[in-house]
Write a structure and sequence with these properties.
By secondary structure, the chain is an alpha+beta fold. Helices cover 25% and strands 32% of the residues. The strands form two sheets. An eight-stranded mixed β-sheet has the order 1-2-5-6-7-8-10-9, with helices on both faces. The protein has a two-stranded antiparallel sheet with strand order 3-4.
């Protein structure tokens, strides 16, 4: 089932940040936050291979993964996207921010854009996120975005959700 019927990868523009497709020229700046199946890239080559898989997942309709771009500097500050459950009308929302941008509101703004896209464009009925129970900043972010804790998962993870 093809979930995405876009001729062009969807870009979401806000006043402070935009969500856009990650380009090959972005990869070298994202190595430290490049992940695929919870494995972190250690080289540009590994990050490029992971991004190719992420791009294929989008083409297959299984996920959508954006770069979060500062509209003023045009630099990528992090990534976010939906990774599972889209075929069931829900989506696991994940995000990663480059450390030099922590505490500056970029992720709150980027995630708000992603949530609006998920609810209004994709028509998701449920958005969920999982994080380590000791990851205070991620938990505060989710709660600030009106997510509610729904479960304690294996290995110290917690799940939060947002319902339409």
């Amino acid at each position: 089932m093809k979930l995405f019927q876009y001729d062009n990868f969807p870009q979401v523009t806000g006043s402070r940040v935009s969500l856009r497709q990650i380009l090959e020229t972005d990869i070298k700046d994202l190595i430290e936050i490049s992940f695929y199946d919870a494995i972190r890239a250690e080289t540009v080559q590994q990050a490029a291979e992971m991004q190719a898989k992420i791009n294929q997942d989008y083409l297959d309709g299984n996920s959508i993964h954006w770069g979060i771009v500062d509209n003023e500097t045009h630099k990528i500050v992090g990534t976010c996207g939906y990774y599972r459950g889209l075929d069931k009308g829900e989506g696991e929302l994940g995000c990663v921010l480059l450390p030099q941008y922590y505490g500056k509101g970029y992720m709150t703004t980027g995630m708000t854009l992603a949530i609006d896209f998920g609810l209004h464009t994709l028509g998701l009925k449920r958005i969920w996120a999982a994080t380590d129970q000791h990851n205070g900043p991620a938990i505060k972010l989710l709660e600030r975005l009106n997510f509610v804790k729904t479960a304690d998962l294996n290995e110290g993870e917690v799940e939060y959700e947002l319902r339409k």
